[in-house]
Amino acid sequence: MHHTGSGSRLFRSQAFHYQALRTMGHSVASGANPGECLEAIRRIRDEDAESWYASWHAFGEKCEKMSVAEGDAVSRGMDLLRASNYYRASEFFLSPSDPRRLEAYRRSSGTFVRALQVLKIPHKLWKIPYDRVSLHAYYLPGDDDKPLILACGGYDSTLEELFFWIGKAARERGCPCIMFEGPGQSHMLREYGVKFTHEWEKPLKMLLDYAEWEAPELAKRRKVILGVSMGGMLALRAAARDKRIDAAACFGGFFNMREAALAQLPGLGRWLFRLGFEDVFNRLARLKAARDIGRRWALTNGCWSMGGQTPFELLVKTGDYSVAPVAEEITCNVLIVKGERDHLIPSSDSALFRKHITRARTYREHTFTAADGAGEHCQAGAVEQFHQVFFDWVEGLAAGRY
Nearest Cα to 92, choosing from 58, 61, 49? Predict the structure, then answer.
């Protein structure tokens, strides 16, 4: 094998290990096949973005070709779901200016839509007007007596990937689900270049207004917003301002983006930033990024999706992305979940959530352990354990247990 993984790690590189585990973990929702993933991993050289792209893209093409071969509709639909996820993975480490990135995303979203059609999964793709562009959302109908799950991603999610994180699980339990993107994500970022906003209540309002017009039966439905990773912080901020939300779940999200980012830096870097030594900070950040593909990707993705021309400018922008300014306005039910071995979220965040979210109707927190195999960021590779906690919480709210 070309990579240098050892023990339970798929790669020595944290960035490659986590993204490979994330991709393979979507097998729970038919978005991957372990055998295919292990073969794709075998062909990848650690920290080599080109081999990463080539391997995952090849398996995306292989699955897409299988979907038009002879076979039953269910198998062909499953082929398309896997193709969508593999195409998503393939673009991950490419430069935003690389034309293959948009091409791979379009193939990922296209094969996903075809999968829903072939599998005859009831759905609607909404294209909602938003600041002269369009915000995309998928509506998956469910049972009349179940709450509506609203799902959004984070720093690097695509809209279609939300099906693997939560959409399919919601559908299996009869819960209607709306998977939506916002500025800085997915189609809005790749097709229009729209950057993130910390005012997540704005895309949520546009979504809910449109949903209640397009599907009036949703107006009086209990509404639970679930944010994945950075989306957890955004979901809490949106729930603070839009009181149509009955409950908000922060799935592997941080409390304060700037502090989470600073926690990833060496002490010297934190000191330089806090004292405002911009030039020296930028030189140090670029030096570190040159030696670590994870740091390099984080800076590149941030400048692309959030704005800022330098590491210092990007870190300044992250200051707006915090739960603290709206914490006292959060009056809905709240669930905070985290992984014991999360490499992106500071362990101190749990205390911050408890300290600041004091007016929630109910507050629940759950930590997944490494010993149970669910300690990674967003429980990658063991998301079923999150589903058990999340849907028990949703049902408990309806039954008045919390």
Answer: 49
The model's pTM: 0.96
> What is the spatial distance between Cα 389 and Cα 334, in angstroms, rounded to a whole number?
13
Helices and strands per DSSP (H, E), number in the chain: 17, 8
Report which DSSP code applies to 124. E
Reported confidence tier of residue 7, pLDDT bands at 50, 70, 90: low
pLDDT digits (tens, 9 = 90+) for 279-320: 999 999 999 999 999 999 999 999 999 999 999 999 999 999
Cα(176)–Cα(178) distance, rounded to whole angstroms?
7
Task: List Cβ<8 Å contacts ≥24 apart for 310-319.
Answer: 310/278, 310/282, 311/281, 311/282, 311/285, 311/286, 312/273, 312/278, 312/281, 312/282, 312/285, 315/258, 315/261, 315/262, 315/273, 318/257, 318/258, 318/261, 319/257, 319/258
Rounded to whole angstroms, what are the CA distances from 143 to 140, 146, 147, 172, 249? 10, 6, 9, 11, 21
By three-state DSSP, how is residue 268 classified?
helix
- Cα dihedral 240, 243, 249, 252, rounded to 10, equals -30
Tell me the per-residue pLDDT of 215-234, one tens digit each, with 9 for 90 and over.
999 999 999 999 999 999 99
Write the single-letter amino acid at 242: D
Report the candidate in 129, 209, 168 with the shortest Cα–Cα distance to residue 32: 168
Q: How far apart are alpha carbons 4 and 199 in whole angstroms?
A: 42
Among 115, 104, 117, 124, which Cα is nearest to 178's?
A: 124
Tokens standing for 25? Answer: 């973990």
Average pLDDT over residues 368-375: 96
400 pLDDT higher than 90: no
Strands 133-140 and 177-180 come out as antiparallel
CB distance 82 to 31 below 8 Å: yes
375: pLDDT confidence band, cut at 50, 70 and 90?
Answer: very high
CA atoms within 13 A on the CB side of 256: 17
Amino acid at 187: H
**Confidence bin at 402 (pLDDT 50/70/90):** low
